[in-house]
Amino acid sequence: MNRIEEILKYFPTNIYNILLYTIEQNNQVSSTIQEIRIRVNKPILLKLRQADILIEYIVTQSEILQILEKICNNSIYAYKNQICEGFITVKGGHRVGITGTAVTENNNIINLKYVTSLNFRIAREVFNCSNKILGQIINKEENTIYTSLIVSPPGKGKTTILRDAIRRISNGIEEMSFNGKTCGVVDERGEIAAMYMGVPQNDVGIRTDIIENISKAKGMKMLIRSMAPEVIACDEIGSKEDIQAIRRGNNLWSKRNIYNAWKNNRRY
Questions:
Q1: In whole angstroms, what is the distance from residue 127 CA to residue 168 CA?
Q2: How far apart are the C-alpha atoms of 210 and 186, rounded to whole Å?
Q3: φ and ψ at 204, to 5 degrees?
Q4: pLDDT (tens digit, 9 = 90+) per residue, 202-225?
């Protein structure tokens, strides 16, 4: 099943047929589409890399609810926490953004009702897209990597580049004489490896261990203590808590290395 088919299955039959027809009539859509935006009482918008396609079909509130139920496997309540975060990650690593009327309690969102918009952001694997930045990440002299941060505006491919960089660092980079490293990925939102029933849908390398749907702080702690990663990767650094998690993870990693160095040099 290709990336577009993974998304289309969530739509009601009439919208599915319209989208499929539009894609089949334009060969560039399937290869360049980035988003499918669905809004109540509005036309459907397909966002491509260089242009938009407006489909003159007015989406109803009922159809949006049908789509949301399919996304949630007919159990919206089970996805309540993700909905309150404003998105749901589905099989294949695709993210569905959600907006509507927020229900708040003590300044916290506890639910969304009257969902009015859905934005399907289509995830793609682009192999070797990280080649241009690997020279800045890799420390050739010590055969390790520098602490690195990838920054760009939304939708410019940060996660795609990160995923490919993890894959290459994990597998090893022959042309740079770089040995593969044991990588640990904290996939908090399920967009990097796109695990489905425990199996990564994206290629993140042969030496990579993944923990998903967990906070960065807890995920890093578990990986360091259980899987001894040489490299830790995570996505979406956007809060003080995330920065604190990275600092704590770095401290744990450093303490582990000091202990291992002591243990390896200890005489019995």
A1: 9
A2: 6
A3: -115, 20
A4: 999 999 999 998 889 899 989 988
Residue 104, CA distances (Å) to 86, 100, 111, 113, 128 in order:
13, 12, 7, 11, 44
Q: In whole angstroms, what is the distance from residue 244 CA to residue 91 CA? A: 30
Token pair of 226, please?
């259980």
**Hunting for tokens 């690195």 — which residue is that?**
148
CB contact set of 176 (below 8 Å; sequence gap of 6+) = 134, 135, 138, 140
Name beta bridge partners: 138.
Answer: 145
CB 159 within 8 A of CB 235: yes
- Least Cα distance to 123 among 183, 231, 56, 196 occurs for 196
Residue type, 152: S
Q: Which residues touch 129 (CB under 8 Å, ≥6 apart)?
A: 157, 160, 161, 164
pLDDT surpassing 90 at residue 268: no
Question: What's at 43, amino acid-wise?
Answer: P
246 vs 232: CA distance, rounded Å:
9
What CA dihedral angle connects 168, 174, 178 and 180, to 10 degrees? Answer: 50
Scored b (16 or more CB within 10 A) or e, 65-97 reads: ebbbeebbeeebeebeebbbebbbbbbbbbbbe
Which amino acid is it at 24? E
pTM as predicted: 0.77
Specify the DSSP class assigned to residue 178.
B
